[in-house]
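A favour between colleagues. Tell me how you read the following sequence-structure pair.

===
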Amino acid sequence: MSLRSNLIYTALFAASTVATPAAWAQVQEPAPPAQEYPSPATEAQSPPMSQAPQGNSAASAQISDQKIEQFADAYVAVQTIQEKAANDLQTAKEPAQADQVKQKAESDMIAAVEKSGLKVDEFNHIVETMTANADVRERVAAKLQERQGGG
């Protein structure tokens, strides 16, 4: 379970570096600022990403509208859990208390993803695809804007 939740944390980090759905749709610059920080780790851990541009339209076509809808639902829920956990971590006074906050957030995020109808690996796959595929990123951004009342 720890590996699965670490993937969600990684996915959230990647997704949240884009800031807001509006930013996803508007910012088309080559490298978002957050990619500068983890780039050595990203290169070492993600060799398929370097191959992704070859299959951009295929990857986009493979992610159905239903999966994008489910992802948006899961993303909103996970984002809320992450924000609450971040606030709780700031008030945690002892390491054991912080560990409890993290463990609860992990299980809550996994539950939120699964409640949306996605598996954790599907959620993470969509995040990975978003980083390499502008079409998927725009589709997700549009769904997220709908959920925030902006579309």
